[in-house]
Amino acid sequence: MQKPSDARFLAGFRQYFEESAHSGNLFVDQLNPSEDKARRLFAEHDLRCTRQRARVYCALDACKSHPTAEELHELVNSGSEACCMSLATVYNTLEALCSAGLCRKIVSTTGSATAARYDADIDEHLHVVTPDGRLIDVPQSVGRQLLDRIAPDDLAHLEREMGVQISRIALQVFASPDSSDPSSA
């Protein structure tokens, strides 16, 4: 079930997508030429390339809003190059992409917005989680400053105490409900 904020997001995104199709914006150009990129990436990661997988990956790669599976489903089934892809196909494709290391599943539990979001940017970076559940990328330099403040000795202590080896750190920063929306600045 879509929440009103989801409907507004999808309507705005659909409008942007359709305007881009008419203006020749690079966003739309990425959906077709990046299928070659998708094929190369899939081959490098031993993932079978299907038209549906390529379409979902290209849409996710072009979308910087960290969409949910439902939002991606709406996206690939709208616009000038709409197709009839089921939501189950989108979910299965996202799971395959995550397993292959081509995207990340980001689960956030803020308020009632617990839907997983997906990110094709697999470089290490941080996110700010807004009160409505959206994710906004933290600028790389700021994120690096935050992560650099975690002392290696503290990580080693954590590994010893927990009996695990830390492979990476994922940090989410939560915005307060009364903060201004940084994505609208």
Describe the protein:
By secondary structure, the chain is mainly alpha-helical. It has two domains: 4-106, Arc Repressor Mutant, subunit A (Orthogonal Bundle); 121-177, Dna Ligase, domain 1, CATH 3.30.1490. It is 49% helix and 8% strand. It contains eight helices and five strands. The protein has helices spanning 4-23, 26-31, 34-44, 51-62, 69-76, 87-100, 140-148, 152-162, and strands at 104-106, 117-119, 127-129, 135-137, 172-174. The strands form two sheets. It has a three-stranded mixed β-sheet, with no helix packed on it. A two-stranded antiparallel ribbon has the order 1-2. Helix 3 (34-44) crosses helix 4 and helix 5 (69-76) crosses helix 6. The longest helix is centred in the first third of the chain and has 20 residues, at 4-23. Mean pLDDT is 79; it is low at 1-6 and 20-33.
Characteristic key phrases:
185 residues; mainly alpha; Arc Repressor Mutant, subunit A; Dna Ligase, domain 1; 2 domains; three-stranded mixed β-sheet; two-stranded antiparallel ribbon; 8 helices; 5 strands; globular; disordered N terminus
Strand order of the largest sheet: 4-3-5
CATH class of the largest domain: Mainly Alpha
**Main sheet makeup:** 3 strands, mixed
E-strand count: 5
- Low-confidence spans: 1-6, 20-33
Number of domains: 2
